[in-house]
Amino acid sequence: MTFDETIVIRTPATEVFKTLSNFRNFKKFVSSYQDGTYEGKGPLEQGSEITSTLFFLGRKVTATSVVTEVEADKTLAYESKTSPVPTKVKFTLERVSDQSTRVHLHYEVIPGSFFHLEESFLRPRYSREVSVTLRGLKSLVESKGVKV
């Protein structure tokens, strides 16, 4: 299953990217994200690993993700390394103006064995998660409520 959604955020790409590339901010705008750890020192880079605790469909899930692509102010992508549901996530940022950024979120999930649930059951839940994530990011960044 793939999901694609785009939103315009009235904030420069640099500030949007700072929010996305600091995984500690995830719990402020990703509704299923509870907590996480990052063993690295400094900013996320290709190969960085993040272990996250998520809450989805009433269950607590632990997953390790690997950063697969990072380009300052433009792209952040990661995919699950260990997770009950294999996922690939990519945020692409595009400068609209000095004060606005278009953010595209591509989310790919392979539900396979996840609690043995069918795609028809999971699709609307993941679709909602993608929408809520982008709206949460927009709200957080535009309110300047993020500390990076």
Summarize the model shown.
24% of the residues lie in helices and 43% in strands. It is α+β, with helices and mostly antiparallel strands and 148 residues long.
Q: Please, could you describe this protein's structure?
A:
The protein has helices at residues 13-20, 26-29, 119-142, and strands spanning 2-9, 33-38, 49-56, 59-71, 75-82, 87-97, 100-109. It is of the alpha+beta class and 148 residues long. It has a seven-stranded antiparallel beta sheet with strand order 1-7-6-5-4-3-2. A hairpin with a 4-residue loop joins strand 5 (75-82) and strand 6 (87-97). The relative contact order is 0.26. The model has no long low-confidence stretch (mean pLDDT 87).
Number of strands: 7
For the biggest sheet, the summary is:
7 strands, antiparallel
Give the averaged pLDDT, no decimals. Answer: 87
Order of helices and strands: EHHEEEEEEH
Put simply, the count of helices is 3
| Uncertain regions spanning at least 5 consecutive residues | none
| Structure class | alpha+beta
The largest beta-sheet arranges its strands as 1-7-6-5-4-3-2
Which shape, going by the Cα principal axes?
globular
**Helicity level, as a percent range?**
10-25%
Please describe the structure with a list of short key phrases separated by commas or semicolons.
43% strand; alpha+beta; seven-stranded antiparallel sheet; 148 residues; 24% helix
Layout of helices and strands, plus pairs?
Elements: E1 2-9, H1 13-20, H2 26-29, E2 33-38, E3 49-56, E4 59-71, E5 75-82, E6 87-97, E7 100-109, H3 119-142
Antiparallel strand pairs: 1-7, 2-3, 3-4, 4-5, 5-6, 6-7
